[in-house]
């Protein structure tokens, strides 16, 4: 039994010296303090790296079908009252979407920006527009005789015209916000005065130049937000002075999935945008508007949250701390030998 213990003791890689054989020096203490400081700093750095979440991006073909596309709108039109504004959505075939799950609020805004009234519209999007395309055409003028018959200038129309003119004189604006759920196909939605009869609009506005579509986009997104998302139109302000025209935003939507560390998946969309403004011309016959023309990318982006594994953390920690310990040990031996050599040479010179 004793022989076996002796054999086991022979393979000890960490032999112990007797206490009286150990020598502690000032240089060793300095190196030890430096080494401990470096190891503590590197340990904190590695711990932060282990606890930090980073993202990995992957791309694949978008295979989604038959789903709806949520459009979150939050815009202010400081020069147009809520009564004249309407929202319209058209898909790539040119037909207006029917039975949209639409939840839109219109807030009447004073000249100072205070809310003075609220209107909830469960279905703000027009549904029966087989003759309307609203794509810079002149359809409003072609059906003017029918619209005149429908709207006429009865007491309700005259009252509405009077209220709108009074609101415009007071500098009243409108804030439109809510959610549009449309089909996942290319299309556009726009905010304008297209919902008015041409004759009613002519009574309200002296000309097309008086339809001031100045606007502020507080938020425009196509799905829920995730950490790090950037919506390029948020905070956009476009103010017109003594002129008018049509704003067009060409949007490319990129389907996105965000996967959290908890394995939860958040389906949403990113987008890029190009802006174009068409000034009003003298021969122009279409009403100024703000268009958002969108198309979907066939590629979907998957963003995954990841974190280094615990085994990876332990491996890096051992490498860093072990390397620092070995380096400080070598430095201590070098300093000890240098100091010993200098001390011996000094002693010899004194003896001589």
Biggest β-sheet strands, sense, barrel: 7 strands, mixed
| Gyration radius, rounded | 37 Å
- Proportion of residues in β-strands: 25-35%
Structural class: alpha+beta
Low-confidence stretches: 97-101, 123-151
Number of alpha- plus pi-helical segments: 7
How many strand segments? 13
Integer average pLDDT: 81
Portion of residues within helices? 25-40%
Membrane topology: Multi-pass membrane protein
Protein name: Endoplasmic reticulum-Golgi intermediate compartment protein 3
Subcellular location: Membrane
Pfam family, one: ERGIC_N
Which terms summarize this structure?
single chain, 352 residues, alpha+beta, 6-stranded antiparallel β-sheet, 7 helices, 32% helix
Topology record:
Blueprint: H1 2-10, H2 26-51, E1 54-61, E2 68-77, E3 86-91, E4 103-109, E5 115-121, H3 139-142, H4 144-151, H5 155-169, E6 173-183, E7 187-192, H6 198-204, E8 215-221, E9 236-238, E10 245-259, E11 265-279, E12 289-296, E13 299-306, H7 310-351
Parallel strand pairs: 10-12, 10-13
Antiparallel strand pairs: 1-13, 2-6, 2-8, 3-7, 4-5, 4-6, 7-12, 8-9, 10-11
Helix pairs in contact: 2-7
Structural notes for this entry:
- The protein is an alpha+beta fold and 352 residues long.
- It is 32% helix and 32% strand.
- The strands form two sheets. Strands 1, 3, 7, 10, 11, 12 and 13 form a seven-stranded mixed β-sheet that branches. A six-stranded antiparallel β-sheet has the order 5-4-6-2-8-9, with no helix packed on it.
- A hairpin with a 5-residue loop joins strand 4 and strand 5 (115-121).
- The protein is elongated, with a radius of gyration of 37 Å.
- The two termini are 59 Å apart.
- Mean pLDDT is 81; it is low at 97-101 and 123-151.
